[in-house]
Amino acid sequence: MVGHDAAWQAWRSAMSGARMHHAWLLAGKKGLGKATFAQAAARELLRAAGEGEHPDILTLTYGPKNKDEAKKRDDGKPYELARGIKVDQVRDIQRRLNTRPTMGDKRVVIIDPADDMEVSASNALLKSLEEPPQGTYFLLVAHSPARLLPTIRSRCRTVRFPAIPHEEMDQLLRRLAPEADIASRDAAIAAAAGSPGAALSFLDFDLGKSAQLMRRIVEEGDRDFGLRGQLAGTIGAKQNIPRLQAVLDLARAILAERIESASGDPRKLVDTHAELVRLTGEQPTYNFDPGLLGMEIGTLLASAGAASERGNG
């Protein structure tokens, strides 16, 4: 995985040391491969060859939303996931930690994502981190480490996964998605903000044309609303929540580029970015009409552009 060299160096150095820390916080943006690293690092620690599930690697992640969804899972049917990791899941893992490892003297608990634990789950986990069972190691995957309890963070050794630079991202996408055109790659790279996993997801949404229109609106303005209409057209009329979230992420990324390159007072740009953040947070709840959302995004971008400001006096 791209960008994992420093993480492997830290992990392997600890493995070869006299005493390895029992809890690790793998921190970085979503889509950097932290969960993949956690699984590979756990297998290396346990000297587990091959693939497939390992009895001494316990992975804790989102479970079914409720009992009805759990029944669907047990019946092999699609089921809805809970929004967070619940205390019962943590306690179930803790009960398993009362037994000896199955195939050796070590086991690894992976929590992904740890920053989505409910408060009661975090408090329960803290007890295990304070008094870890012998031979048990914890790997906490976190996209937003600040959301974790300070007492949990203080008991972990933190390994940070860096965002991937633009050039490396472009090379990666050329290799993994050779069918994508330049505009689509550029849009995915801009929206992903250094996350390869996110960039690949954005490519699936085909936002290259939307990105071109957004940049034109910011740079040129849109006094006759023509570009906004085209932008709404590229977004489409279908209520596809993941795609609409990707469109909003892309708009924020393009505006962030503008903020970084601004030579004058950036406050208008920052205020507009805050409005886009608000829209992003409200979209899953309010299910905005896609066309109207496209027009609103375009209006915000136009109001932030220098050309638009001149046009409006």
UniProtKB/TrEMBL annotation:
Comp. bias (Basic and acidic residues): 65-76
Domain of life assignment: Bacteria
Disordered: region residues: 57-76
One Pfam match: DNA_pol3_delta2
PANTHER family attached to this UniProt entry: DNA POLYMERASE III SUBUNIT DELTA, REPLICATION FACTOR C / DNA POLYMERASE III GAMMA-TAU SUBUNIT
Protein name according to UniProt: AAA family ATPase
